[in-house]
Amino acid sequence: MTGWQMLLYKEVLRFWKVSFQTVAAPVLTAVLYLMIFGHVLEDHVRIYDSISYTAFLVPGLVMMSILQNAFANSSSSLIQSKIMGNMVFLLLTPLSHWHWFIAYVGSSIARGLVVGGGVFLVTVWFTHLTFVAPLWILVFAILGAALLGTLGLIAGLWAEKFDQLAAFQNFIIMPMTFLSGVFYSIGSLPAFWQRASHLNPFFYMIDGFRYGFFGVSDASPWLSLAIVGLAFLIAAALAVHLLRIGYKIRS
Amino acid sequence: MSAISFQSVSKAYPSPRGPQGATFLALDGVSLEVAEGEFFGLLGPNGAGKTTMISILAGLTRATSGRVTVMGSDVQADYAQARRKLGVVPQELVFDPFFNVREALRFQSGYFGIKNNDAWIDELLESLGLTDKANANMRQLSGGMKRRVLVAQALVHKPPVIVLDEPTAGVDVELRQTLWQFIAKLNKQGHTVLLTTHYLEEAEALCSRIAMLKTGRIVALDQTSALLKAASSNVLRFKTADTLPDALASRARITGRIVQLPAHNALEIEQYLAAVREAGVSVEDVEIRKADLEDVFIDVMKAAGEST
C-alpha cells in the first residue's frame, strides 16, 4: 500500500467507524423528505408525462445525499484535524499535494456513494423506477461526489472554525442543492428562475443523474456532463494549488 | 555530510502589533551544522525561535530566506526525501480521537509507504511501555501515554534523524527516564538526535553539543563540556532571610531564600563571605558547588542581553 492509499483507507475508515452518524442519519433524513413531499405532492404534481412525483423525487434525493455527504466528508475531516492539531502527522509525511487531493476526494466519493446507495436502497421500494441509461447514473454520481468532495476540501482548508464551515455549508451548498431541481423540474418555474437555474452547476448534476433513470431531462446529458466536468476541473485546479502552497496549513 | 544543516536561515512573521506590513524576525540568519550521530541540544527562553527552527526543518513552516537540509536533502526542494529521513515529536499533545494506538502507528507507517511494519511497531510499543495500550483508543490515554505514542509515531519509519521538541514538558519522572533511556539507545545505534528542552539538567546529561538561542540568533554554540568550562567554575550557595548588600545582589542569582554567586577562585569566595559578614547578613547552609548548565545559560543570556 503506498502512502496515498493508506490516507484514502484511513479517511474511509474514519467515516465508517461513525457510520451511524455519517451514513444512517442522512439516509433517514432522505426517507423523511420522501415520505413528506411524496405524500403531499404525489397526486398534485406531475413532471414528465409518464413519471409519478415520487419516482421523480427518488433520484433527486439520492443525488442530494451524495452531494451533501461528499462535501461533509472532506470538509469535516480537514477542519477537525486542523482544530485538534493532529494534521501535523500528515504534514510531516512525504505525501505530495496530489496524494492529499486523491485521498480526500476519493474518500468523499466513497462516502457519497455509500450514503447515496443507502438512500436508494431504502427509497426505491416506495415507487417504480426505470434505469434507462445506468452508465449516466454512475458517471454523474461519481463526478458530482468528486466536485463536492473537492469543494469540501477547499472549504476545509479555508475555514478556521466550525462556524465558518457551517456558514459555507448553510449559505452556499444547501441553497444551491435545494434550488437545483431536487424537488421539482425547473420546467415548472417562471422564465427568470429557469434561466437562473441554468447558472447553477448543481442543477446539471441532478438533471444528468435523473436522465440515467428516465431518459428524459431538462438539459441534454452531454451538456450537463460538460458543465459538471468543467466545474470539477476548475475546483480541482484550485484545491491542488491550495494544497501545493500549504494554504492555511503550512505557514 | 551533516545530518542537519541550517544555512543563514531567517524567518519573518507579520507583526501582530505595529503598522500594516510590519514584520518581526523569529529567526535572524541562523547557521548551524549537526553532524551524523550527534546528540544535540537547542536551548533558549520562550520565543527564542527553537520551535520555528524545528518547524522549518520539518517543513511545517517555510523559511523566509536561507536553506535547510536533512541528511543532504533540501527540506523544500526535495521535501519527500527530507521527511523520510526525519522523525519529529511535536511539542503539543495531539492525537486522532477516531483510532487506537496500533491503528495510529499503522497509518503513520503507511503514509511513509511502509508495508507490514508490525514487527517494528511491536518493538516500539514494547520499548515505550505501550504494549498493553496497543488497542486502547487515543482518547482514553493519559497525557504521559499520549506523549509516548507521539514518540512512537515519530519513529515508525526508522528515521536517521530524530527531533524532540520539549518532549518532557509536564511528564512524570518514570516516563522521562524510560524516554531518555530509549532515545540514548537510538543515539548509540547511530541516530542523530536534536532536542529542545527547558530542563537544563537533561540537556547537560544527554547532549554532547549545545546551541543557545536568543531572539532568533545563536548566542552560544559549543561542546557541552567546553560551555561548562568557560563559565565560572564554582558557585557559592547559601540561604538567607536578610537583604544582601547591592554589590553582591547585582552579581547573585536569587531564588526565594537561596542565593547563588559565581566564583572563579577561592579569593573571590573569601571576598563574598567577608562582604556578607560586614553587612551583618546571617546565612545558613553554605556550600560551594561546580557550575552547571543553568549557570552557563544565565551567563550567556545575560551577556547576549547586554550586547543587543
Structure description:
The complex is a heterodimer of chains A (251) and B (308). By secondary structure, chain A is mainly alpha-helical. Chain A has one domain (3-245). Helices cover 75% and strands 0% of the residues of chain A. Chain A has helices at 3-17, 19-41, 53-84, 88-91, 97-123, 134-158, 162-178, 191-197, 201-214, 221-245. The two termini of chain A are 30 Å apart. Chain B has 308 residues and is of the alpha/beta class. Chain B has two domains: 2-228, P-loop containing nucleotide triphosphate hydrolases (Rossmann fold, 3-Layer(aba) Sandwich); 232-290, Alpha-Beta Plaits (2-Layer Sandwich), CATH 3.30.70. Chain B has eleven helices and 14 strands. Chain B has helices spanning 50-58, 79-84, 101-111, 118-127, 143-155, 173-188, 200-206, 224-230, 246-249, 266-279, 293-307, and strands at residues 2-14, 23-35, 39-43, 65-70, 73-74, 86-89, 161-165, 192-196, 209-214, 217-223, 234-240, 253-255, 258-263, 283-290. In chain B, the strands form three sheets. Chain B has a six-stranded mixed β-sheet, with helices on both faces. A four-stranded antiparallel β-sheet of chain B has the order 2-1-4-5. A four-stranded antiparallel β-sheet of chain B has the order 12-13-11-14, with helices on one face. In chain B, helix 3 (101-111) runs parallel beside helix 5. Classes of the chains: A mainly alpha (251), B alpha/beta (308).
